[in-house]
TrEMBL record:
Annotated Pfam families: GDP_Man_Dehyd
Organism: Marisediminicola antarctica
Signal sequence annotation: none
InterPro entries for this protein: NAD(P)-bd_dom (IPR016040), NAD(P)-bd_dom_sf (IPR036291)
Name by which UniProt lists this protein: Epimerase
Domain NAD(P)-binding: start-end pairs: 10-310
PANTHER family, alphabetized: DTDP-D-GLUCOSE 4,6-DEHYDRATASE-RELATED
Length: 340
């Protein structure tokens, strides 16, 4: 297996939140070249602006469903990390487009990689493939009953990656991050996540919004840890054809999350506003990270309180530069644009 150090790597979706941090990590580990293929639907060039002076980095603006874009980006690549996708709330208002990108696009990427003899293909999935926990913590053999087209499409991509390993002997790895947070996370539009949305609202003096009773739980991991773990799967031994959970092994409810953020922001009086339950919302997620630890030695380093403090500081600085950020936070962000 080719080592990450000295190798040529393609990261699809590399201008996004997790993808851009992964690019940073791969370059720090000595990759000879890191290419990004991203259509900038969710990602931004700003996430990669600090790399424009690095000769080892390049960005191609294009769609994974374009044969020309795939061919140009993957030519000569030894390792592919496939993160490009459309998100869970997008799938609620545009299920067919979500499927075409997440399922069909992943199959197209796998076939391109097979034809070009890519050394390893890391498919980055999601804990949403599970649906709500039937037992906890959730290991890799937990039943998969996704509650959204997003979860279904990502599960299809997993199945294709495993099939390419079994049918063609292609070196594929499936990794399922649970809930990642940290700098560059999305707060706007249908890609906005609970933590950044809540922080931006509270920094603007607005109450946080919780859908339903707030007892839904999630397993959060800081993006620096997620990127570190993903990088390890690029050249780890004994992982081919395998599926791995990537979480902290702890859970926090949305009610608890809002309390932690309020205290960190210094606005404990901003109590949560409860709205109707969100469609397709998973009730409970908590991963069992032991398989990942056993095969790679990875363990998260950033604690939740430390990570929230850092993220609050990061958003506070950006809000000083762009006070209109609050205008881009949509309350019911699973509805079509402009409907709220």
């Amino acid at each position: 297996m080719t080592s990450i150090s000295g190798s040529r790597i393609l990261v699809t979706g590399g201008a996004g939140f997790i993808g851009s941090h992964l690019v940073d990590t791969l370059l720090a580990r000595g990759a000879a070249e890191v290419r990004v293929l991203d259509n900038l639907t969710n990602g931004t060039e700003d996430n990669l602006a600090h790399l424009h002076g690095d000769a080892r980095f390049s960005l191609t603006v294009g769609d994974i469903r374009s044969a020309d874009a795939r061919a140009a980006a993957m030519n000569g690549a030894e390792v592919v990390y496939h993160l490009a996708c459309l998100g869970v709330r997008h799938s609620l208002h545009d299920p067919f487009e979500n499927h075409r990108v997440n399922a069909e696009g992943s199959l197209q990427m796998l076939e391109e990689a097979r034809e070009r003899g890519v050394g390893r293909f890391v498919y980055v999935s999601t804990s949403e493939v599970f649906g709500t926990a039937q037992y906890a913590p959730m290991d890799e053999r937990h039943p998969t009953w996704p509650e959204t087209v997003y979860g279904g499409g990502k599960l299809a991509g997993e199945a294709y990656a495993r099939a390419y390993f079994r049918t063609y002997g292609m070196d594929t790895v499936v990794v399922r991050p649970f809930n990642t947070y940290g700098p560059r996370s999305h707060f706007e539009g249908d890609s906005g996540e609970i933590l950044p949305r809540t922080i931006v609202r509270m920094l603007s003096g607005q109450r946080p919004v919780i859908y339903g009773d707030g007892e839904q739980t999630r397993d959060f991991m800081h993006v620096s840890d997620t990127a570190t773990a993903l990088a390890l799967f690029g050249d780890a031994d004994g992982v081919s054809g395998e599926t791995f959970n990537l979480g902290s092994g702890t859970e926090i409810s949305m009610n608890e999350l809002c309390t932690v953020v309020a205290d960190t922001v210094g606005r404990p009086e901003l109590t949560a506003e409860h709205l109707e339950a969100r469609p397709g919302d998973v009730r409970r997620l908590i991963g069992d990270p032991s398989h990942t630890h056993e095969l790679t030695g990875f363990a998260p380093r950033v604690g939740f309180a430390e990570g929230i403090t850092e993220l609050t500081r990061w958003f506070r600085a950006r809000q000083r530069e762009s006070p209109e950020m609050i205008d881009r936070v949509e309350v019911r962000n699973w509805l079509p644009a402009g409907v709220n």
